[in-house]
Amino acid sequence: MFVENPNIDHYFASAHSKIMGMKTESGNHYILEGSGNLSFNSRIEQYVLDNDEKLFNFTKNWMNEIKVYLKGKKELILT
Fold first, then answer.
1. DSSP class of 76
2. Total domain count for the chain?
């Protein structure tokens, strides 16, 4: 569903961060950050959901830098 959707950028980097940005048609700019993997588990996790255009743009910019770097590569390996 996500891979084939032209409105979603989906790429991978060898990191442990979990962050998602969502811009809505109604003008909201959501950022979801958390400690948990996107899976079912019995662990206690924490999440932060912000509706903040500046934070959204900051996150979008550094993610775009990684996306540009990854063009034509399989993944980003951070050492």
1. E
2. 1
The encoded tokens of residue 12 equal: 């991978």
Q: Evaluate if residue 58 carries a pLDDT over 90.
A: yes
For residue 76 the two structure tokens come to 């980003």
Are β-strands 13-14 and 19-23 bridged in parallel, bridged antiparallel, or unpaired?
unpaired
Backbone phi, psi, residue 33, to 5°: -125, 145
Q: Please, are residues 8 and 20 in contact by the beta-carbon 8 Å criterion?
A: no
Dist. CA 77–CA 3, nearest whole Å:
21
Q: From CA 33, how far away is CA 49, in angstroms rounded? A: 7
pTM over 0.85: no
Let me know the angle formed at the C-alpha of 22 by 70 and 10, rounded to the nearest 5 degrees.
Answer: 25
Residue 41: what pLDDT?
Answer: 76
Domain limits at 38? 13-77
Looking at the domain assignment, is residue 2 inside a domain? no
